[in-house]
Amino acid sequence: MPDTLYLIDGHALAYRTYFALTAAGSKTERWLTSKGEPTAGIFGFASVLLRILEQERPDYLAVAFDTGKTFRDDMYPEYKATREKMPDDLRAQLERMRELVDVFNIPRLEVEGYEADDVLGSVARAAAAQGLGVKIITGDRDLLQLVTERIIVSLSGRKLSESKDYTPDTVRESLGVRPDQVVDYKAMVGDKSDNIPGVVGIGPKNAQALLGKFDTLEEVYEHLDELKPGQQKKLQTDRDNAFLSQELSRIVTDLNIPLDLEKARVTSFEPESVRDLFRELEFRSLMSRLSNVMHILGMTETQQASEQLSMFDHKPSEGFVEASTDTKTIIVDTPEGLEKMVKALNTADVIAFDTETTSTDKMQADLVGISLAV
Fold it and tell me: Domain holding 111: CATH number?
């Protein structure tokens, strides 16, 4: 197995985690610090980042963010015009997310005039060309066009713990076309979420059939005379929209973006800097996970006291705690894993458990997760 570079789509992950934890933005009041700072997006972002470090154990890691207006807005002013405005409290958290990436010493990738998708696409293709494996963490299906034998796209689900890895085979199973045909598929079908027009009257099944027979959008138009009169008319009428949609959908993959792999190694951060930010944001439940991540990564721990408050609001002393050398962390995220866990619990003499919640106030807290030790 080659070393793997993990690339996180910062803005897409911010949206997914924010809406997952706030019930689509309706319960933001539970995600305020004692000073009134909103934290739902940054908490979810940090939680997913820690999960990636715990479970995936990447060799290298980088995060890409959007910067604002892009060349697509100049090309088509209506691009993404129908999207709802980003919630104000989420917008206020984006700089905090950048700060989190920085304190973890993770390279932050941004290019003016381009979307995070273009940055991810360019870095992914360059890394794959150098022989690295690449895994892109996102919630944006547009990135499926980047999938190759070396590039996997992991799409998040409705819950933070749910995600699906897409390979060339799973892309074809899901969309009915190859990854390299995704752009032409969207050129015909369009994309309501991005306000990409496509061809009116050409749906997924028609697009799949056309690309199955003619391979590319250009070839479809070269063989219009072989199509049924109805399809001919639709494609002829919306020819300009089809090729505009193709350009809007195509991710740029040739940006020159330097990435120092040594700086992208996941063991290069200063734990105390991360802790300071967690304290400021009152993320006490993430302290123990940070220590667990450091143990998994083989990092030296200088201050491994957990700062998660108990139900009696008692804060542990800040002493050194020796990590167990035989700890094995298992994330239970499948029915089979749950069955194994139940068997292990049924045969254990002693069971310890801890909860991760959205607040230390038991009357306000929502359950985020449970950890069990045997």
Answer: 3.40.50.1010
